[in-house]
UniProtKB/TrEMBL annotation, chains A, B, C, D:
<keyword id="KW-0633">Potassium transport</keyword>
<keyword id="KW-0813">Transport</keyword>
<keyword id="KW-0812">Transmembrane</keyword>
<keyword id="KW-0407">Ion channel</keyword>
<feature type="transmembrane region" description="Helical">
    <location>
        <begin position="55"/>
        <end position="73"/>
    </location>
</feature>
<feature type="transmembrane region" description="Helical">
    <location>
        <begin position="150"/>
        <end position="171"/>
    </location>
</feature>
<keyword id="KW-0630">Potassium</keyword>
<dbReference type="InterPro" id="IPR027359">
    <property type="entry name" value="Volt_channel_dom_sf"/>
</dbReference>
<dbReference type="Pfam" id="PF00520">
    <property type="entry name" value="Ion_trans"/>
</dbReference>
<feature type="domain" description="Ion transport">
    <location>
        <begin position="24"/>
        <end position="236"/>
    </location>
</feature>
<dbReference type="InterPro" id="IPR005821">
    <property type="entry name" value="Ion_trans_dom"/>
</dbReference>
<feature type="transmembrane region" description="Helical">
    <location>
        <begin position="29"/>
        <end position="49"/>
    </location>
</feature>
<protein>
    <submittedName>
        <fullName>Ion transporter</fullName>
    </submittedName>
</protein>
<feature type="transmembrane region" description="Helical">
    <location>
        <begin position="209"/>
        <end position="229"/>
    </location>
</feature>
<keyword id="KW-0406">Ion transport</keyword>
<feature type="transmembrane region" description="Helical">
    <location>
        <begin position="85"/>
        <end position="105"/>
    </location>
</feature>
<keyword id="KW-1133">Transmembrane helix</keyword>
């Protein structure tokens, strides 16, 4: 086995997931990313940071080293290293290492956390290899089919919250917590989506009447995204037409229970004598 | 090109959206309205108002001037100016200018804000020209199809919140925040729609039992608007089939491009002899 | 026109809604009941009660008088007065008067309010006459069709909130607001139904993990009542089979697009030669 | 009637629910378990515990005795006692007794409560005998059919709350209540599921913008579990048709009582010659 052959096999293991080795590699990588995320999350807890800051930093450096080695391997075995390096995943892979190396010189960990979270995207990358992805594609295609309807819905909701927010700002005013129109719009979103934090609440009777309208609106129009998605999904699940070429005109697809070709009018199936 | 011809072309650009110029005009107008709204919204923020009140006022005057010119153009190029002036959109266009002019003499901006928000309606008017509107019509027809069911639903919900509100007023009473029946009805709406601000909460055990009933009711009957809308939408999406009763067997729906009935095999349309 | 004939016509007007007079009578009655309810609701507002208590009391006495006259009319014109008096609606009609008369002697209005709310039921009775009721029947039949599924769902939810409530009582304990198991179950209902008042919130990390589980459960299982109702409603809306008796065996209902009788195998429609 | 015969009849009554006696036994047992749970719940209320602690303890001992006798009966009449004792239900039955007996020696009732709640599982076991279970199976099969989609959905939600939680921790920081990433993730779950306790709320403008995005996301993606479940349930309800491919044209679904294919008119089942 020469060097090129080894590189080829490494490429299959690192970049593809059709072989057992490739699957094992990806699963291991997913686990390491998850561990790395858990360490970042734990480090944000004050009591843990006080006691184990150094230990967690060492572990995080370890993960950075592992990711750096992995990045090197990918560059080495890829047939077109530059193309990989400037692809989306290549950049994400690089961004998973850089903050860890920077953290050695600047301990300003706070802002590096945001960059490190991009590693999360790798979960999707690893999942692509899992049997679940056909289902995800299924859901995404249902979402894509209703993209336009969703945009109309979001525009309507944006208009609603702006109108209701401004109305509440005028009715309730800064003395009741509605300090500005943006804050009132934020309140309208909190109310329309039925979240209802309760940090800002209407106090005047008229404000409470408007609030009731916002709530009932929000409670009712949740039917819209649900309805769109359900109808689209049911459509996708049903959409199996009869695939039986008409013996006369060869039209291939027909209504599920068609007996005669809807194009030429001849029987699709011969009747037993 | 004479004056009348120019007016005709202006009319097409200003009032219609089938030409590239008309589309560009409407898009620009939409952007200006959005900017004008952003200025109103920004002006409501206390810290910005303190520092930039004058600047924002000048910008708003600029927008008022632009809208006034646009209103004049519409009056000028419309074949029936009076009919436009008293149409819904004509009045909205006028209302978009008046507060800006009034604001020069009276700086009582607070109350003018409500009138200015009516400009938002223009977003829908501009969207009518966008390809999204067929989708909006689609959603609206689904909503119209279930209008009666929605009225029955809203009457039931109104009855429910009145009964539960009164019950809570009697059970909890003013000492626990349920100061009057209207406030208790407001609380019932907040709870039934699962918003749950938490500004008014039941404190007695019996009040908490009634609250639990309200919540479970609200959690369950959200199925009603969702179910209505989904069933109506699924119906509308299925309804894209050819609606032409077969002259022989009366089967009503066929594939969009069917020439023969898929049930009895007879021609759907008679040939001209 | 003799006395009996007059009584007969009064009966038709008061008890039925097929004639214009009957419809007008019921609409007027609905309006009076609504006004009476509004008076009760207004009287509960402290500032109004202080200033207009006497006026509102007089108005309420007027309504009581009107309802008493109406009750007398119903007794007079009913062919079987006793049967009416002891029917559900007869008792509700009586209960709409009694508290008003009692209020003359005892001004303990607080507790009478609950009884007066029963008048609300008359809204449904009046609505029965409106064209909306076929829609209400439609919704109710969809709900009845899924009664068993709803019971299973409610039992599961009850079990869930009991288990989660007890768990939270043990984990968080009285020091964090979870003062007893019933209060913790109330909290679990507030959380599972996504209401989230915020009067009781988990404070320990383990309590927050359980809360997150309760929330995600509640967020997900809302699909169950929605799914049940939607599927049932879609079924009810679709359920239009082909009503065309088979010319050979007379089987009356077939699949919507059947070409041959599924019982005897003969063609349902003759083909044009 | 000999001893073995009596044991056999006892077995049928205790373990099966097809006979009237078996059904009565199971219903009684369910009621006793419910009473036992009510006693545990009541005992957790401070004011009741202070006054009736002894009485409730005696009652609970009584229930423990009843369950012990029942456990003995089950062991006695079971044809394979060891197999029962180590089955899931056998262990649950034992766990329903042990804490009660332990409570006599150690009054540390607090921790025993968790174990006692396992008795709740018996509700499902008893319900298995009720006519409702076919419905529960129905719902469960709909859930099982969409298991993969639900996993994809839960993974996406987990990723979303981690990303949004970390973002909010960085944006808002410990001074605004977002004390650590786990707490911020907890807040993201509270917000995404539209529960909205309000114990932690965003205070910076940027934090409120991110919150608005979380809320609108949560408000929209509730469509996903609902859509999945509804489509799956509608599929299951439609699926009550006869699934028998027509031997001639292969049409797969027919009316439940069809004898001939409704598409090609050929017999669905061959006659024995």
């Amino acid at each position: 086995m020469n060097n090129n052959d080894w590189r080829q096999r490494l490429y299959v293991m690192v970049f593809q997931a059709d072989t057992p080795a490739g699957r094992r590699f990806d699963t291991t990588l997913l686990l390491i990313i998850l561990c790395s995320l858990v360490v970042v999350i734990l480090d944000s807890i004050d009591s843990i940071h006080r006691d184990y800051a150094n230990l967690l930093a060492y572990i995080e450096w370890g993960f950075t080293f592992v990711f750096a080695v992995e990045y090197g391997l990918r560059l080495y075995c890829s047939p077109k290293p530059l193309r990989y390096a400037f692809s989306f995943y290549g950049l994400v892979d690089l961004l998973a290492i850089v903050p860890g190396i920077l953290a050695i010189y600047y301990s300003d960990a706070q802002y590096l956390l945001i960059i490190r979270i991009i590693r999360m995207l790798r979960i999707f990358r690893v999942l692509k290899l899992a049997p679940y992805l056909s289902q995800a594609n299924y859901l995404l295609s249902a979402l894509r089919g209703s993209k336009q309807k969703i945009i109309v819905f979001l525009v309507s909701v944006s208009t609603l919250v702006t109108v209701f927010g401004t109305l509440m700002y005028v009715v309730e005013g800064p003395e009741n917590g509605f300090t500005s129109i943006p804050v009132s719009i934020y309140w309208a979103i909190v109310t329309l989506t039925t979240v209802g934090f309760g940090d800002i609440v209407p106090k005047t009777p008229f404000g409470q009447i408007i609030s009731a309208m916002v709530m009932i609106t929000g409670y009712s129009i949740i039917a819209v995204p649900t309805g769109i998605f359900t109808a689209e999904l049911a459509n996708a699940m049903r959409g199996e037409q009869l695939k039986h070429p008409c013996p006369t005109c060869k039209k291939e697809r027909h209504e599920p229970s068609a007996a005669f070709c809807s194009r030429c009018g001849n029987a699709l199936f011969t009747k037993n004598a």
